[in-house]
Amino acid sequence: MPQGLGVGRHLPKEEVTADRLRGLVLALADDPGVRERCAAVRSDVAGEGGTARAAGLIEAELPGPSGAGGVRA
Questions:
Q1: Angstrom distances, CA of residue 19 to CA of 10, 28, 73
Q2: Cα–Cα distance, 54 to 66 (Å, whole number)
Q3: Tell me: the pLDDT tens digits for 22-65?
Q4: Which residue of 2, 4, 25, 51 sits 20 to 30 Å from the alpha carbon of 44, by its own alpha carbon?
Q5: CB-based contact 57:72 (threshold 8 Å)
Q6: How far from 5 is each of 34, 57, 59, 68, CA to CA, in Å?
Q7: pLDDT, tens only, 24-33
Q8: CA–CA gap between residue 42 and residue 72 (Å, rounded)
Q9: If you ran DSSP here, which 8-state letter would residue 53 be given?
């Protein structure tokens, strides 16, 4: 998903090394386009109610006393 949003890169698990992972993280951190897309994603999430709403939707699906099991916020 992050790659599709333009805020991440895919590194197949069979190709993961500390050096490759470090290189990808540094490249993402240095990319102004990634920073711009992160800001846009952050704005979109906030506009949809943010992490509190996301947590509420997830909890509503959980069985037990805190979740209503299927009731959507």
A1: 15, 14, 43
A2: 15
A3: 999 999 999 999 999 999 988 888 888 888 888 999 999 998 76
A4: 25
A5: yes
A6: 9, 22, 25, 31
A7: 999 999 999 9
A8: 22
A9: H
Distance CA 66, CA 56 (A): 10
Exposed/middle/buried for 7, CB within 10 Å: 0-12, 13-18, 19+?
buried
Identity of the residue numbered 31? D
Q: Is 56 helix (H, G, I), strand (E, B) or coil?
A: helix
66 three-state secondary structure = coil
The single residue listed with the structure tokens 């943010």 is 50
Q: For the residues of 6-48, what is the DSSP string, one character each?
A: TS-----GGG--HHHHHHHHHHHHH-HHHHHHHHHHHHHHHHT
Tokens of 12: 């197949």
- Which residues, other chains included, contact 53 with Cβ-Cβ below 8 Å and sequence gap of 6+? 73
